[in-house]
Amino acid sequence: MRDKGDDTGGAAQSALTAATHALRRIEAANGEGRFPVPIHVGFALHHGDAAYGNVGSGQRLDFTVIGRDVNFASRIAELNKRLGEPLLMSKPFVEHLWGNPMPLGAHAVEGFEEAIEVYRP
């Protein structure tokens, strides 16, 4: 639960702005023929908790993030392609936005009993 003094709307709005800006730049670069093959990307925006840090030892050390919400975001990313939407947002993410994103319904995904509600800007 957020404290009344927490302003997470600014962070969510900044993430959405960055993602839409990146999509526009990639679309423009594709239109200009800047890549040998057009690039297609998908963004999945979610708000939640994650654990992060270094994993491994010796010769192999990786920095990673783990947790239920990381898995949740990964499942939303899988929906990008299935729904043909380059930018999807979870319900917990849109609850922090100032605008009114368009709901795209709830979708079953692997690893979660309940369907995941997703939105587009």
Automatic annotation (TrEMBL):
CDD domains: CHD. One of its GO terms (molecular function) is adenylate cyclase activity. Residues 38-77 form the Guanylate cyclase domain. The keyword Aminoacyl-tRNA synthetase does not apply. Its EC number is 4.6.1.1. It is an enzyme of class 4 (lyase). One of its GO terms (biological process) is cyclic nucleotide biosynthetic process. Keywords: Lyase. This is Adenylate cyclase. It comes from Microvirga flocculans.
